[in-house]
Every structure is written in C-alpha cells, then in structure tokens.
Specification:
about 280 residues; single chain; 8 strands; 11 helices; 2 domains; Jelly Rolls; Arc Repressor Mutant, subunit A; two-stranded parallel ribbon; about 45% helix; alpha+beta; about 20% strand
C-alpha cells in the first residue's frame, strides 16, 4: 500500500489546460498507466466518465463499480476513488471545478451525490458523445478570443445533459411526496453540517419540524431512521480519513466534531463492529 500522508491526496488539473476545465478522450486496456488515478484520491473538480467502448473498473468510497459501455458516471469532488483496470475501454472524461459550473448545475450535482453508473440509450449516448467531441474541439481552440467562455459554456451544456439523464431516473419534483421533500432537505443539511450537528432533534430544528415527524418522513422515504443516516455519513468520512490519510485517530475524531476521543472510538465500534485501528490496518498488504 502506498505511503500515506496527513491529507487525502487531491489530483489537480494538468498544467497547460484552461484553468478549471479539462476534457479528453483516450483508449485504455489493462491496469492504469498513471499512478495519480491508480491510487485513492479526490479530484479538485467534478469528474464525469463517458464509457464509449469496453469496460472500466473503478472504486468509489469503498464500493467497486463495473462501468460498461454505453454509460456515464459522475464522481463528486468529496468522493475518494481509484481506477482499478480497463478492458478495451474508450472513455471521454472531463473535470470541471465548482467555480466554473453554473450555480444551478452545482446545486443539482450536490443533491444527486452519490450516484452509480447510468446506462445510456443509443440515441442519448450519441447526443452526449457528439457534444463531448465538440467540447474537446473547443478545448483545442485556444486562439479564440472568447476561448474561456466558449469552453465553459460548452462543458456546462454537457454537464446539464448528464444531470438531465440522472434526474430522468427519479421522480419529477412535482411528484415528490411531502415525506420525500423533507427527506431531501434533511440529506442536504446533513451533508453540509454532519461534522457539527449530530442529533436528530437538531436537524429537525433546522427544518422547523418536530423530531418525530422528521424521523417518520425519513423512515418512510428511505427505510432507515434519521440517526442511521447521521451515523453512516460520519462513518463514511471517518473511513475515508482512516484508510487514505495518516492522521491520528484523535485528529480524525476532532475533525469530525468529537472532542471526546474515546467516545468516537466507541461510536465507531458500535456502527462498524471494529475499532478504528483494526479498520485502518485490515487491508494493509
């Protein structure tokens, strides 16, 4: 296993490209030939992989995914991921930083996370593939007077197309039940505040509803209690830091909002069935 640092590694965009946007198409077969994508990392932008041919094996937040053409997958900047292998794969991938996304797209992407690979129908794949190819052409026309605007507009159009496909799988907002609307609001608040707010009562207060009603809504919409969702979000971040950084368990506990280091350990054991130390070491080579 590669040597760890005190921080989860973040891949930045290659030098020489427009700041904040990168797009490219390439053929791969076998293990990755770039260590930056083979090792667990985050990207400093929103990653999209359009699987045009073949198969890509990728791990995202401890879950392995097999992406088969034709399909698309979106990876949020918070998600830790690594490429495992390719099988005669042709992919178009692009990364766009938050400041280069339309605000509406940024909000929609945050609400979508996490997602799995999305299979594409032939007609939809053709439109997305052609749009991606056009964006690649835009990225090569650096001499254009409005190069930055052209590339930003093109890539946001591409991102909007992808978001539309993911949203098509879910209900229209007009068809959401009251339970589902409240659950979405809770999850959005949880994602923003999980290191600071730990109790169902506090989340209910944020949403101006009673704790029993919040729990009823979330339980009916997801099958799990509010406490379950809070615990799982904290544990996911704890696992990310334990496995991919060299921070001490005490430092991780503090980063996640636990001043009582021993309480954090007991909490981790209760949810996962193992101590943080065992989780950190169990997959070492």
């Amino acid at each position: 296993m590669p040597k760890k640092s005190n921080h989860i590694h973040v891949n930045t965009l290659p030098s020489g490209v427009r700041e904040g946007i990168f797009i490219g198409r390439k053929f791969f077969n076998g293990p990755p030939d770039i260590k930056e994508v083979e090792r667990p990392h985050r990207d400093n932008g929103h990653l999209f992989i359009l699987q045009e041919k073949g198969t890509t094996h990728i791990e995202i937040d401890f879950q392995k995914h097999r992406i088969e053409a034709p399909s698309i997958i979106y990876v949020h900047p918070d998600q830790i991921h690594r490429v495992i292998a390719f099988e005669n794969a042709t992919t178009t991938s692009w990364i766009i930083t938050s400041e280069n996304l339309y605000q509406e797209n940024l909000v929609l992407l945050t609400n979508l996370t996490p997602v799995s690979a999305l299979a594409l129908k032939a007609e939809t794949f053709s439109i997305i593939s052609e749009t991606a190819a056009l964006c690649i052409q835009f990225s090569e026309r650096k001499y254009e007077k409005l190069f930055d605007s052209i590339l930003k507009e093109g890539c946001n159009t591409l991102v909007t197309l992808i978001i539309s496909q993911y949203l098509a799988q879910s209900k229209a907002i007009d068809n959401y039940s009251r339970f589902e609307i409240i659950t979405k609001s809770f999850k959005s608040t949880l994602e923003h505040d999980f290191t600071k707010i730990k109790s169902p009562m506090a989340y209910a207060k944020c949403l101006n509803i009673s704790t029993p009603y919040l729990n009823e809504c979330v339980k009916k919409a997801t099958g799990h209690s509010v406490s379950h969702h809070i615990q799982q979000r904290i544990i996911l971040e704890a696992k990310r830091l334990l496995y991919h950084s060299n921070k001490s368990i005490k430092e991780i506990a503090g980063e996640l909002g636990y001043d009582d280091y021993s309480y954090f350990i007991r909490f981790f054991v209760k949810v996962t069935g193992m101590t943080p130390v065992i989780f950190r070491t169990k997959n070492f080579d």
